[in-house]
Each structure stands twice: as structure tokens, then as C-alpha cells.
UniProtKB/TrEMBL annotation:
TonB-dependent receptor-like beta-barrel domain location: 309-738
UniProt-recorded name of the protein: TonB-dependent receptor
Signal sequence extent: 1-43
Domain TonB-dependent receptor plug intervals: 69-175
Subcellular location: Cell outer membrane
Length: 772
């Protein structure tokens, strides 16, 4: 989708073709219908005369080379920083409000993006998502770091479908590329101050310009501190509220230094510091099916947007990253090198019983060090052929720092030391050959090799070693792709593609009670078939795609009782049965198919419209040995570790319908004016993060129904911005979730009861900005 306020956006992605089997009828029907829809859209759009985003080119590097967005045989959503701001999207979790078919949810503190129903159901400090996230071309492995606001943005690209060839590391579902502003040739800058409901204070600044004829700098800073919209319940008067439960704190510094070292060599040196502390999704206060082992109110919160816990609930992570990008122009193409090193410290602390009784507190500390190196050679000197060859190396070392602790009744019950070392390398090649005028064929492939070494030790309260375990494994995979594109009219293309995606195998961080059974889950794979249509004309853009995925060995997680659990529940203050282990397994098969698309237009001067839509059918086709949290109708309590058959059930975070619509309209006044903007997004019912069923003990009427579903809802954001005539000073009043809809960002259960975190209610505020 085109984005307001940016005439050229650089993107990266790949996508692919060939249809077969049950997908063929759906994909062919889609391909036939799309050109007709485009003609109808064009007939309704007024001619476009001014130089806006709709009439200009969006240049992307979808196949790691510069191409127009409409010429890339892949489904991509491109959103500029201005469009995100106009839509009221301020953080990564809200990306789905402007990118149909995408969602961002949580499992505990860990951020888990979803594209077209492909997401991860495993979580932990050592777990990489299966939707890859890149920041300025560098892979971001941490699911904690990406839980951040979005200042200093040039734009975001959502690459839909497996990126097995060019962005192949753990990109089963796709990739999300976050691009920050590059240093500019002239001095420019901006600053903003924001104040909103819940004492939400934000400040950001950016300055960029030349230090010398061949050296440019860009420096950005961001700070946020907000009281939580979730309040601690008063244990004396349960209806009263004491204060913020989980304040959100963020800070970031991004520095880029760009230099022309020679006429054909450019270097970009970067330093990034990101700090995020957002403990909202580690609140375990049960709201239903509460175990009688837990205390009654007032020792437990009962109202919406309230919580109860001892100590603190927090998840601070601090990332320091250094990067170096080198681009060397040769006689036949460009060699680009990406070198990055990240040092990250992560801390999680939460009260697992979610009450004011001092029962179970988990304290987790990790230190992660990541090195990555990639090199691409983009050869474009051969007539009718574009070729890219490249390779990457990745090393990740994550270990407890210094130890992890489990406290029972305020006393340390055990300490753990563990770590995971990952080494990976890959080699890839991709070529696009012009077969005839307007007809091109893309073929590519990637060979990946991954290795993981794990160690884990448990110490008793007295310091004795209880468990001493180690395990390692390795995996290799070849992931090809093919895409055929035909230009049926200027800037109007149809395409078909086939590709494979791969997510490396992995281990539970915690071994099972029988340590000899500590084995990895095998890699998950996906075969994807897609057909699509794209056009970009004067005044509007439109694209649409139909797709089918054959998904194998999905990696999922279940909660099992800890071996430390007493056979008979102890008094609440000493209830070790509140401890659970996160255990991974593979779901054999699933399939996904659907249609999605986007439309943007400028029907009259200064009015920009955008629309996105997605229809999705995503189900487990073979998952007969799933482990879920069932319900015992006789007791009204949860049943942990119940073997269930999830075959035929909807996959998590895969709503059948989703979409978004927005506009912005400017009443000009000199270089400024008054801009009105609004965005509405909708999603139908879906499983938030736990696909468990009510199960056989709940009764035949509900036994096969999924428990932890979120009903369908719509979100409305709006803003009004006045910019004074010189174009420098602007004031914005805004509102988000204006209908004050109540919905969950996490929702699951354990033997303690059902628990989850509600999203932020209606918020409103004012922003003051200055640009130069």
C-alpha cells in the first residue's frame, strides 16, 4: 500500500509461485477476479494531477535490488512513518491496525508477530519467532526488544509468506522490516513532546545533516514513561485501587554515521541503544475458574484492569548494538556487507499465583550476545538478468546472568544456571531472467545449517546440584522458490509463485524430569503457493493475492507441572504446585489458505484513502496429541495437561476476517494547515495464544470448542493536527480506541484459573512538535 508523505520507500522481501492441489481452484479464481476489481476501482477514482504518493513510484528491494513495488511478484504491505502516525499507530503491537492479515500478540512478556495465521506458540528468552524482524537490515532475535514504540521511522514493510530464500532465517510466516531515517545531505531535524491519559509522557528528537562533504550524521533519541492503566487492587478494600501495577518505561538512542570512503564505496556505522520495560503481560491474577487453593478477596484482585501480586512485575531489557554496513560498487554490480554485534541484558520477575499471598515468585535473568555477518553480491550488468548471490553467519550466546531463582513463600527454593549457544550459516542465490517483453522468471534457493548446544543445572536451596544436563543437535535445509510475473499493462502485473520456508529446531530451555529425554523439536517447514495482481496508476494503487500453505511440524508449547510439585497441595503459602514447565512439541500438519489485498487512492487533492482486507482459513489438520487446559464441569475448575485432539481447530491468531480503513485530509494554509486523520481496524473472533479446548470433562456440548477465544472487535483512532503556515510548529490532539472496546492481548489458563491481560482502554492526549 502506498503511504502518505513519502514518495520513495525502500523495502526488502521475496515471494514466490506455482499452484497445485486443493489450492488451484481458489488461486485461479482469484487471479481471474482481480483485474475486474482493479478496473472498477479505477473507474471510481478521480484523475490525479498533483505529485503525491499515489502518482509516484515506491521503490523497494523486495528481491534485494531496487524495483518498483508493483513489479515485485510478492505480497507486501508498505507503510510510511507518516501513515503510521496519522493512523494512531505508535508501537509495534499495533501494526495489525494498518496491515491487514498481520497481528502482534504476546505469550507472557514475549512479543509474537503473526502473518496470515503463521505465528509461534513457543516462548522464552531462547526462542526466536517464526516471523523474522529486521531493523535497518539487521536481524533482531529477541522477542523482548521488539516490544517497543516506533519513533524515528522511515517506514515498515510487511513481507507476507515464507521468506525461505532471501530472508530465510526463521521466516516461516514472513518478515517485518523496520527502517529508520537515514542521514540526510542537508541539516534537518524535529522534536516532539506528548502527554496522554494515564500520565503518559513521551519525548523524541532527531537531527541529521552533513559533517563534511562526504560525511553525514543522523542522531535520534526517545523517552517514554507512563503509569499503567492496570492498577494494583487495595488488599484492604478490594474495590479500591492503590496505584500503577506495571508502568511502561522506554528509552532509545540511534546514531548513524554515513561516509563516502571512495567514489564507489559507502560505509554506514551505527549504534543503537534500546531499553524496554513493559510487564503488563506477566500479570497472572486469575479472573475465572479460580482454584480454591488460592486466597479469596481481598487477597486477590477481582475487577477488570486490576491486579494483585507481591513484589514487582517487570520485564526490563536493555540492548546495545553496533552495526557496520559497507556498499562497494563494482563493474558488474554491488557488494553489500552487513556486520552487527548486540549485547542484551534481560530480566523477568513476576508473581505466578497472582495474589497477595507470598507463594510463588519467578526471577529470571539472561545475558545475550549476538554476532551476525551477511554479504550480498547483486549483479546487474548482464542484459535481461538480475542475479544475487550471498551468504550469512550467525552466532548467538544466551545464558542466565547470574542465576535464575524460584521463590516459594519468600524463600529461595531453587536456583538454575543454563545457556544456549546457536551457530548458523547459510548460502543463497536468486536470479530473475527476462524471458520476453514483460515476462520474467525468478528462481532462487537457500541452504541453511543450524546448530544448538544447551546446558542446564539446578541447585537446591542448600546449593546442592539437583539436575545437571546438556544436549545438542543440528539441522540443515534447502528452501527454494520460483516466481513468474507478466506485465499485462504499464505498471500492472500478474504473478504466480511457489516457495518453501524453514524454522530451525530448538530445545526447551528447561529439560524434562528424565534428563535423558531432553530432545529438540524438529524444524517446522511450509510450502506456499500464491497468485496475485498489482497495479499502480495515477491516483490509486491496488493489489490482491490468493494463497495456500502446506504447513508441517509446527512448534507449539504446553505447560506441565514441575517435578518439584508436591503430590498433595500444600498450604497456599508453600504451594510448589504453582510451578510449571514450558514444554515444546511438534504439531504434525496444518493448512492455511485465503485472500488479502490493499487499496489506496487520492481521489481529490489533499485527500488520501487507504483500505486493507484479509480473509483467512487456518486450521490444524492433524494434531491428535495436543496438551491443553481443559475444564471439569463438575468442579468448575481447570484441568491441566489434558490430552486433546486439536485436528480441525482454528490456529492461534488466525481470525477469519480482518481489515482496516483510514483517511487523512489536509486543509492547506501556506506550508501548513489543518489535517484530519482517522483509522478503523476490525478483526473477527480468534484464539489469542492458547488453542486449548474445553475437553471431554466439560460436557459434550462444549467439549470440542476452543476456550480462550477473543470475540471480534473494531478499534477507532483519530487525530486533528494544526501546522502553522511556515510548516515548522504543529499541535495534535488525538484519541485511540475511541469506542473504549475491551479486548485481551493475552488470554490463557492454568490450574490456578484463567488469566489474561486486557489491552489499553480509550486514551487521548496532545502532542507538540517542531520541524526544521
Amino acid at each position: 500500500m502506498g503511504s502518505v508523505g513519502a514518495t520513495r520507500i525502500r523495502v526488502s522481501n521475496e515471494a514466490v509461485l506455482i499452484a497445485r492441489g486443493r489450492a488451484a481452484k481458489l488461486l485461479v479464481a482469484t487471479a481471474l477476479a482481480i483485474p475486474l476489481l482493479s478496473v472498477q476501482a479505477h473507474a471510481q477514482a478521480a484523475p490525479h494531477t498533483d505529485d503525491t504518493d499515489m502518482g509516484s513510484e515506491i521503490i523497494v528491494t523486495a528481491q534485494r535490488r531496487a524495483e518498483r513495488l508493483e513489479d515485485v511478484p510478492a505480497a507486501i504491505t508498505v507503510v510510511s512513518g507518516n501513515t503510521l502516525e496519522n493512523a494512531g499507530v505508535t508501537n509495534f503491537q499495533e501494526l495489525g491496525q494498518v496491515a491487514a492479515g498481520a497481528q502482534v500478540n504476546f505469550a507472557g512478556a514475549f512479543t509474537q508477530p503473526t502473518i496470515r495465521g503463521i505465528t509461534t506458540l513457543t516462548n522464552g528468552n531462547n526462542v526466536e519467532n517464526n516471523v523474522a524482524v529486521y531493523v535497518d537490515g539487521f536481524y533482531e532475535p529477541s522477542a523482548l526488544v521488539i516490544n517497543a514504540d516506533l519513533p524515528n521511522l522511515a517506514g515498515i514493510e510487511v513481507l507476507k509468506g515464507p521468506q525461505g530464500t532471501l530472508y530465510g532465517r526463521n521466516a516461516t510466516g514472513g518478515a517485518i522490516l523496520i527502517n529508520t531515517l537515514a542521514p540526510s545531505a542537508e541539516w534537518t531535524g524535529k522534536a516532539q513532546l506528548t502527554y496522554a491519559r494515564f500520565n503518559d509522557k513521551r519525548a523524541s528528537a532527531y537531527v541529521s545533516g552533513p559533517l563534511a562533504d562526504s560525511v553525514r550524521i543522523g542522531l535520534a533519541g526517545y523517552y517514554r514513561h507512563t503509569d499503567s492503566y492496570i492498577r494494583l487492587a487495595n488488599p484492604a478494600v478490594i474495590g479500591g485501587k492503590l496505584g500503577p501495577a506495571t508502568p511502561i518505561r522506554q528509552a532509545a538512542v540511534r546514531l548513524k554515521l554515513e561516509a563516502d570512503l571512495a567514489s564507489n564505496l559507502k560505509a554506514t556505522l551505527g549504534y543503537n541503544m534500546v531499553h524496554v520495560d513493559d510487564g503488563r503481560t506477566d500479570i497472572f491474577t486469575p479472573y475465572a475458574r479460580v482454584s480454591p487453593a488460592l486466597p479469596a478477596p481481598p487477597l486477590r484482585a477481582t475487577e477488570p484492569y486490576t491486579a494483585s501480586f507481591n513484589g514487582v512485575t517487570e520485564s526490563p531489557v536493555t540492548n546495545h548494538q553496533g552495526t557496520l554496513k559497507l556498499a562497494l560498487a563494482t563493474g558488474i554490480g554491488t557488494i553489500t556487507s552487513y556486520t552487527g554485534y548486540t549485547d542484551s541484558k534481560q530480566h523477568l520477575e513476576f508473581d505466578f499465583d497472582g495474589t497477595y499471598v507470598n507463594s510463588t515468585i519467578i526471577d529470571i535473568n539472561f545475558h545475550q550476545k549476538t554476532f551476525q555477518q551477511a554479504v550480498d553480491y547483486n549483479i546487474d550488468a548482464i542484459d535481461g538478468l538480475n542475479l544475487i548471490v550471498g551468504g550469512m553467519y550467525y552466532h548467538d550466546d544466551i545464558a542466565t546472568d547470574p542465576v535464575n531463582r524460584t521463590l516459594i513463600g519468600g524463600v529461595v527454593a531453587q536456583r538454575t544456571i543454563g545457556g544456549v549457544k546457536s551457530d548458523a550459516w547459510a548460502a543463497y542465490a536468486d536470479a530473475t531472467l527476462e524471458l520476453a517483453q514483460g515476462l520474467s522468471l525468478s528462481l532462487g534457493g537457500r541452504y541453511s545449517h543450524d546448530k544448538k548446544d544447551n546446558d542446564y543445572r539446578v541447585f537446591s536451596a542448600a546449593g546442592a546440584i539437583v539436575t545437571d544436563a546438556a544436549a545438542k543437535d543440528s539441522w540443515s535445509k534447502f528452501t527454494p522458490r520460483a516466481a513468474l510475473r507478466y506485465e499485462i499493462a504499464p505498471r500492472t502485473n500478474v504473478y504466480a509463485s511457489w516457495s518453501r520456508g524453514y524454522r530451525t529446531g530448538t530445545f526447551n530451555f528447561t529439560p524434562p524430569a528424565i534428563v535423558s529425554e531432553w530432545r529438540a523439536v524438529v524444524p517446522e517447514t511450509i510450502s506456499a503457493y500464491e497468485v496475485g495482481f498489482k497495479t499502480a496508476q495515477d491516483g490509486y494503487r491496488f493489489d490482491m493475492a490468493g494463497f495456500y500453505y502446506d504447513y508441517r511440524n509446527l512448534q507449539v508449547a504446553t505447560l506441565l507441572r514441575s517435578p518439584l510439585c508436591a503430590p498433595v497441595p500444600a498450604p497456599p503459602a508453600l504451594d510448589t504446585c504453582n510451578q510449571f514447565l514450558n514444554v515444546y512439541q511438534n504439531a504434525p500438519k496444518a493448512r492455511v489458505y485465503g485472500i488479502d489485498g490493499q487499496f489506496s487512492a487520492t481521489p481529490v487533492e489533499n485527500l488520501n484513502l487507504r483500505l486493507g482486507f484479509a480473509w483467512l482459513n487456518a486450521k490444524y489438520t492433524d494434531f491428535r496429541d495436543a496438551v491443553g487446559t481443559g475444564l471439569n464441569a463438575a468442579t468448575g475448575l481447570n484441568v491441566n495437561n489434558q490430552v486433546q485432539d486439536w485436528s480441525g481447530q482454528q490456529m492461534a491468531r488466525a481470525p477469519e476476517l480482518s481489515g482496516n480503513a483510514g483517511f487523512d485530509y489536509l486543509v492547506p494554509q501556506g506550508e501548513g494547515g489543518l489535517r484530519l486523520a482517522a483509522n478503523v481496524s476490525y478483526t473477527s473472533s480468534f484464539v489469542v495464544n492458547n488453542p486449548a479446548l474445553f475437553g471431554p470433562l466439560a460436557g459434550a456440548a462444549v467439549a470440542s470448542q476452543q476456550r480462550y477465544r477473543q470475540g471480534g472487535y473494531a478499534l477507532v483512532n483519530a487525530s486533528l493536527t494544526w501546522t502553522e503556515p511556515s510548516g515548522h510548529l504543529h499541535v495534535t490532539v488525538f484519541g485511540r480506541n475511541l469506542t473504549n472496546h475491551r479486548y485481551f492481548i493475552t488470554k490463557t489458563g492454568s490450574s490456578n484459573g484463567d488469566y489474561g491481560t486486557l489491552a489499553e482502554p480509550v486514551t487521548y492526549g496532545v502532542k507538540l512538535g517542531f520541524d526544521f
